[in-house]
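batch_manifest entry 22 of 60
target: NADP-dependent oxidoreductase
source organism: Pseudomonas retamae
requested by: lab member K.T.
priority: normal
notes from requester: please return tokens only, no post-processing; we will run our own comparison against the previous entry in this batch. if the run fails, retry once and flag.
--- input ---
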Amino acid sequence: MKAFLIDRYGQHRGRIGDVAEPAPGPDDVLIEVHAASVNVLDSKIRRGEFKLILPYAMPLVLGNDVAGVVISTGAAVTAFKPGDEVYARVPEQRIGTFAERIAVDQHALALKPANLNMEQAAAIPLVTLTAWQALVDIAQLRAGQKVLIHAGSGGVGTVAIQLAKHLGAFVATTTSTANVEWVKALGADVVIDYKHQRFEDELRGYDVVLNSLGSDVLENSLKVLKPGGQLISISGPPTAEFAKAQGLAWPLRQVVRLLSLKIRRKARRHNVSYSFLFMRANGSQLRDISALIEAGKLAPVLDRSFAFESTAEALAHVEQGRAKGKVIVRMK
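--- output ---
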């Protein structure tokens, strides 16, 4: 079958080539891929940023999000049947959604929301699960609390704003001048135009900050949190808790622990907590998200779509950092 793959870490563009058909196990669902979405994570994996934590074999088919139709199911699968329209963020050990077909563990899957087409559905899993695991699982965000969501026009930001408003929070976000009114329409109560304002000068007394940007933004975010607040980062640095959850060897755990030592110390001095989130595939949470989508509480935000033959261009577009919402690769 055809797939978009890399032969080595750091390969600039990747290529479309022939790979072996998936070999589904008893808990797997074989899916005909109709659409996939491009995430910043795909570029980080291609560059080798996670090779110590996730040592993939080469050649590697990229892609973490999928929407498609069930072709067949393993002997242990009970929740899905051939013909079902499904979507998922596939488990990180078995990525490869930029392909004609993929086998996915049933526990990562959910039925596609009935009110979304395949491209819209492909835009949902990774970013929305990230927002859910940050705001619901870690922050336990409650009505009346204040949250700052960085990069409000990005893939995670667009759904995190919607989810935080659904939870009843007061939402601030950062974006560029061109996107100020656009993110207000998503539900943001306060928008900081980073081209003309410094968020750390404008905001105070926040309960939660969700960071997806660099180290300077991360450290300055401590200034807007009130005592007892939570700084949650999806862009690093990782923590010892993350390393333990990944099952890393003790020496590597110590290396990872040191990476976040500086920000954890600064967080303690501000009397706030620091957490690193590397989101996990979770079909049960995805079903909860589907219910919100079908109820009109959450909606995907799409920037543009590319044909499968232009997957390299889709990755390059995301790497420019200017996409408003999600970028889609169309397989069908």
